[in-house]
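Newbie here. two chains, one complex. Structure please?
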Amino acid sequence: MSGPFFLGIDLGGTRIKAGICDGKARPIDHASIPTDADHGPEETMNRMAELGRRLMGARKAAACGIGVPGPLDLDRRMILRATNLKGWIKVRVPSGMKRRLGMPVIMENDANCAAFGEYQAGSPCDCLVLYTLGTGIGGGIVIHGKLWVGASGAAGELGHMTLDPRGPKCGCGQRGCIEAMASATAVARAYGLPAHEAFAALRRGDPRAKRVIDDACDKLGMAVANMIHVLHPDRIVLAGGMAAAGKPLFDRVRASVRKRVFPVCLEKIRIEPGRLGGDAGWIGAALWAREKLT
Amino acid sequence: MSGPFFLGIDLGGTRIKAGICDGKARPIDHASIPTDADHGPEETMNRMAELGRRLMGARKAAACGIGVPGPLDLDRRMILRATNLKGWIKVRVPSGMKRRLGMPVIMENDANCAAFGEYQAGSPCDCLVLYTLGTGIGGGIVIHGKLWVGASGAAGELGHMTLDPRGPKCGCGQRGCIEAMASATAVARAYGLPAHEAFAALRRGDPRAKRVIDDACDKLGMAVANMIHVLHPDRIVLAGGMAAAGKPLFDRVRASVRKRVFPVCLEKIRIEPGRLGGDAGWIGAALWAREKLT
């Protein structure tokens, strides 16, 4: 273990995760605290800084990366409005954290950070696309080793691909977004119990759970196939809470994609779980800080 | 006008277009001949070479680019199966043309060539996505000045994005691809007369033509919005025969996209006609040869 070190923080709606990596991208230490929705942005930034300082101890990090729920402004200087954090409107996180930590700070969308973390942790590829399957569906894209955020900084909004103009209403105001049909929330809504209970019931042979999960995974495969028809990445990572369901989910999604994409196109495409689990966000944020700030 | 010169050829189902550019990407001369479906690959390559030699005259080109209907193998050494050219299965076009012309030859998907041509002809951008609206719907993507063909060489198959799992059957075997709902062929099928006649009838106030065109353009906007949610390009070009309909088409597609994408995302995105018209394919092929072979 030798310097330089990098601090990564993943600001989630439920928990704040943080950790430090060394210069070779190896995680050294990490911890998490509850986000606590009652705290406003200033107090939360105080708590994130305290957590970071505690993890660093005597080791001073060279830079800090923070993953936050979007959308962000194009220059990544502020959160425009954090969906799951009440009162977080136009918050200048990087300058606020830089003042508190006394080091360069970079901010990026949380799913983008997870994509960059998984890109670094996996075998080399030209293009990685990550889906986070949780309360919503997020996405991140890495092309030639760099995060791809597109013209307006909002590329990879993979949850808002419309698959059915007559489909269920999405939080974004549209109908038939994949987020409204295949997120953990959508599965829970259709089944009447949390998504992990639906998968547990599927394992017990419950036909209603099977119907709900078959349908969600078929739709998810359709969204992945549509994305393949645009980008043809070589690595597709399904991450986030619902991806923990493992084989029953992956088998179904892969089968749905296979039905919809020219066979020749699938030879070079892997659809796989993440390797970093719930640590992808903070690790990716730390590595993105290393990439961009040093 | 000074050397080096570049020869570009666009092998279409109906016509073969070819031309030469100078080293500054300025078109110097061009011509076209009918494709004539009765000729096989060998005879057609003879005719393409003859056309190229006629255009070059005493000017020897440094390299030749050929745009062909896909799908191609990953290394661009052969056409796997040209959809609109009978009997063109596993044809090694670059080696065949190199033998005939005595110069380096590069082959690429026709819509990819058109995308590269429009990229070079327009104002600078980070990412351009081109749709060709014709018999089918093709696509091409340029990222940071290079064609993006993805892991398996088939990125930008934008016509086969599924928008409605219960939609009309597509030539690819799937249901509800945008090609089956918004290509010139789809509009002609829905209206009962060729697409340009539907647009002419729309101008005369025909309510049935309006319904057909409203619907096709709404769907096309949905496909464009889905692509934006993945890539967020800064320039989107609608090209091909049906894009010649102009304002009635562009106004409707833009309105459909505007309904479906976060407003902040649209600030940096232009949706516009091509600047090269029917010459985009051969010009793009010539410029891609310049890019890759010199």
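Moderator note: Chain B has a mean pLDDT of 93. The first helix of chain B runs from residue 41 to 56. Thread marked as resolved.
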